Amino acid sequence: MQMKMKPISTLPADAGVGLVVCVMLVMLAACNTPAGAPQANSEPVAPSQVSDFDTLYSQNCAGCHGAEGRGGASIALANPAYLAIVDETTVHTIVAKGIHGTSMPAFSQRAGGMLTEEQINVITSEIFSRWGRKGILDGANPPSYGAKAAGNADHGQLVFGTYCASCHGSEGRGTPKGSAITNDSFLALVSDQELRTIVINGRPELGAPDWRSNVPGHPMTDQEITDVVAWLASRRAQNPGQPYSAMNFAQSTAQHSEKKDVN
Questions:
Q1: How many C-beta atoms surround the C-beta of residue 84 within 10 A?
Q2: How many CB atoms lie within 10 A of CB 157?
C-alpha cells in the first residue's frame, strides 16, 4: 500500500513569476554599467589633490599634536595663547621645513615631504582661523616668540627654582606633580625655541601653566624666560648617544670643575 506524502508548504501560484521578474530586473540594471567601469563617486583622490583640512590634519599632524589640536607628544596647537604669540608665517615655515634635529619633520615637497604648497596653506590658515582667538592676550604684555637677547644659564637656574621647581624638582628631574624636563631623551628631541614655546605657553592639556601663572601675580619676564631656556639647554647632551645620563654627569662635573678653577 503506497502512502502519498503531503508537501509541508507550497508557494502561491504567482510567487514563482514574481521571483523571476526580480531576477530579470537585477540583471538589466547590471547591464547598464559597462564591465570594469568605476561606480559614481568611487574614483580615489590623488594625495596631492586632498584639500580638506580635517583630512590633512589627521593624516599629517594629529599623531604628535593630538586630535583637534588638543596636544599629544608635542604641544597643543588649539591653544589661543600660543597662536596669539606665534605668527602665521612662522607656523607655515615650520610645517613646510620642519625643525632640524628634532622630531618635527618637513612636510613640503620642496623639502622632501609629501604636501604641496597649497595643502600647507590650508593647514596653516585653518589652524589660526579655527583655534585662534582675537584679543586673548589683551593687556597681558606677552613675551616675544623668539629670544631677543642671549640667555644667562646661571641666572636661569635661579629663575627655574622660582617658577618651575615646585612641579619639576630643583634639578628638573620631575616630581609627582610634574615631568622630568632635564630628561636626556627629551632635551635631545627639542630645540631651544621649542623649550621657549613650552615655557611661555605651558602645556594646558597636561595641566602645566603658561608664563603668567607659575607664580600667581608674578608673570615671567621675557629675559627670565630666555635665561631659564639657556639653563635647560645647558643640560642637553652635546653628543647624543648612549648612555645619555653618563654624558650629562660628565658634562656637569666638568662644568663645576671649571667654575672652581675660575674661583
A1: 20
A2: 20
Give domain status of residue 9, yes or no: no
Structural domain contains residue 127: yes
- Asked if the model's pLDDT at residue 254 lies above 80, the reply is no
Residue 58's domain comprises: 50-131
For residues 241-261, average pLDDT: 53
Q: Answer whether 192's CB lies under 8 Å from 234's CB.
A: no
Count of structural domains within the chain: 2
Encoded amino acid at 227, one letter = D
C-alpha neighbours within 13 Å on the C-beta side of residue 125: 9
Contacts of 146-149 with C-beta under 8 Å, sequence gap 24+, read 146/193, 146/196, 147/192, 147/196, 147/225, 147/226, 147/229, 148/222, 148/226, 149/223, 149/226
Residue 176 has pLDDT above 70, yes or no: yes
pLDDT confidence bin for 103, thresholds 50/70/90: confident
